[in-house]
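User: Hi! I'm a student and our assignment asks us to look at how structure tokens line up with a sequence. Could you show me two examples?

Assistant: Happy to help. In each example below, the sequence comes first and the structure tokens follow. Example one:
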Amino acid sequence: MSVPVRRLLALPEWAGTVRVMAGAEGLDRTVALPRPVSDLSPEHTVGAGELVVATGPMPQGDWRIDALLRRVADAAGAGVLLPATALLEGTRRLADRLAVPLLTATSEPLDLLVAARLLLAEPELDRAELVLATHRALGERPRPPEEVVTALATVLRAPVALLDDGGTPVAGELRDPGLVRVAEPVPQRVALDDGVLLAHPVPLPSAPRPALWLATELRGAAAERAESVPQALAVAAGAAQRWLLTHRLELERDARARSALLGDLLRIDGEPGDDLRRRAADAGWRLGGWHVGIRIGTTSAVDNVARGAEVTRALRAVDIDAIVVEHGDGWTAWITVDEEPTATRVRALGKRLRAAHHELRATMGAHMGVGRPHAGPDGLAATVAEASDAARLAATRPESGTFLHVDQLGMAQLLLEWTRTDTFEPAARALLAPLRGQPGDLVRTLATYLDAESSITETAAVLGVHRNTVAARIERVERELGVDLRHRDERLALHLACRTVTLADS
């Protein structure tokens, strides 16, 4: 095996003790055999790839140094290593011109020679030492990402970072983290201007792509260890994977308990029992006060257990401290306050939630619904139900940004109330109230128009009026109610309201 001279400079025994005095352009010359020389006799024949290591004292300005440099250049040798000595300027210029590395050492040359020969004779030694050092630094217990990164950075003496599946560091720092191709689940090596970037995936079983990436930047002399570092990265990636799996089990256990508690709260009929109240208190959930429900829905492809913290962060970023529970395909959340929120506070809350939804929608395609304020334990179930209904509607409404607040649903709220027959008729009458007492029997005209599948001609025939009269009445209906009858949800809601009111009146 042969290695470039610069690779020897990266050895722990060489680092900090060996200086490049001249001939830096020749640091890529390969060393096949470092040989000790007690003197610089002209009879010494230099072989190809030989690094001449002078072990004896070296007088200042010895002419034999210049002669040795020429012999090394002629024989395609690797370079010359001398004990610390003062070199003439002419000798340095000669080494530069010949591109022969001229090195000096402050430590014992024979110790350096042994380290170099061990590297050449045992190419796996450095690799094994790094792997063992990494194992010792990480130990057996699962360590969080920050500790894995810190331990590996100490072993490698290079910057290390743990990147998420978007390439953003979650622990540690790198100068160029964006160079890691996170979509490719294989170890990577990327050339840098002054070194190399190495990355290793941290996969989870059955996951379509790695959850995290462990990466390091080896720059300058540290880049010469690039062949040995990947195995140490793999060991550290295994430690990060153990932490992920352990943490995942804890998250899933907690998610199941929280989801079960939420289900019990949503199913209560009347006041909760002592056991349910104690479980809620243990979870830090308040049952008293006023609650506002939030439902965040996603596709089944989104890992809601792993990304629950992301939802909590998005809400806290807009100053909303909510309880967030993994629930079905998404999350059910709510906030609790002591006093009934005013209309102004509810509108302000809606704006902040829309901002949080905007962030979540960009990363996971979420849709969000928000319920009205309700008091007490049964109020929690009511507002969560409203938020869930609103979220289902929001998923089908890209024009609303897939965000709906129950208070802002208008007529579409009638669709939600259809399953609550005791409240549907009053809501329907309130909706159609602006049409009552208006000339032209607008309620009957609207009902006929919707029965006729929005055909003005058929409506005119049923009512026995001119089609222009029908068109004018429908325009007045849209103006009085502030609706657009081209919208299918509003059309259906009005149709149900008209049927309910007319049947009740008849």
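Example two works the same way, sequence first and then tokens:
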Amino acid sequence: MRTTTMLGLTTALTLAASAFAAGADTVKIAFIDPLSGPFAGTGTNGLHQYEFAAEELVNKQGGVLDGDMFEIVAFDNKISPKESLIQLQVAIDQGIRYIAQGNSSGVANALTEAINKHNRRNPDDRVLFLNYSAVDPALTNDKCNFWHFRFDANADIKMDALTDSIVTNDEIEKVYIIGQDYSFGKAVAAAAVRYLGEKAPEIEIVGNELHPIGKVKDFTPYSRKIVASEADAVITGNWGADMVGLGKSVLENGFTGPIYTYYAAADGITAAFGDAGVGSLRLVAEGQLNPPPNDRASEYIQAFKAKYPDGNLSQARITNVIEMLAKAINEAGTADDVVPVAYALAGMEHESLWGGNLMMREEDHQLIQNVHIMEHTSDVVHDHDNSGFGVKVVKTVEMAAADSPTSCKMRRP
């Protein structure tokens, strides 16, 4: 399996010509995420997880259909919606039918609109969008479309689970909400306000602000406001460098309460916090590494670490994307026509490598799965960042939000 970072049209055409000359039977998946800039670490680690899942879970098992192999083709979008659309067109021009993206809901919103428009105009050249991590609820509500599938729990589903944990802590009377200033950060803040208001109106929200994404070098002014507010807990959807910067600054400025997060693990975050994160960091996520749910999961983690010693299996849902796509292609009997593949994915049930059942909800293409509350600790079997620390499941919400309403009104071909 070849993996190449796509930097422009010339490189794309060269690769396309090489693949044609080799006569390779491959199912190509375009990975469009940041491979440079402040979030390069997150994107690169995600790329490695896709590479490994494709090789271990599909190619080594004989591939799909009559032995077609999965190939991950990487495109650096520099976390820019505009650059993402350019790379999307390069991928389509290469004949790639499957687009995987996850970092930034702003990017995901741009991609899903572009893909929907492209598929309407080009019925013989359609593509599917495999969203593995962009969790703006709008993507499976008002902005839903037939070509988009989300494999992560959306921001509302996660906040529902997170606030269940918050309201059981009698020591929390004041909460400060802070996040990145784009669609996802706004969705997290709105969900926090709504669920806290419904479940514990006595909890006071003493701060609710957004900061520029990927541009803040010193979070001290924000941290001082959090400490001055006398908040008992912090809620943030920050990820990547922004999670490290905010979290470390908050702790260094004297905050001692719990920090409830979506993405405070791996990609350098776990190592950066180390012992300081114990008793402070809480995380809501899917996928269970600690304790390992089964021997197969443990073996998979060990094999990944053997190939990528500095990598982290921080996005367990990537294995779900690969396995469910392979199953859908086999059920459809084709990888070239994405319409029957999409129909096979919609409503699909699947047993996750990480334990528990998965169900791709047919009406909005939102994956329903177990969601876990985890804590940063050294009491783990599998650590992150080779740090001796990781995240351990302390509570599980089974098939979270399976009956939650959706405003999706999907048009199907």
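Here is something you could point out in your write-up. The mean pLDDT is 92.
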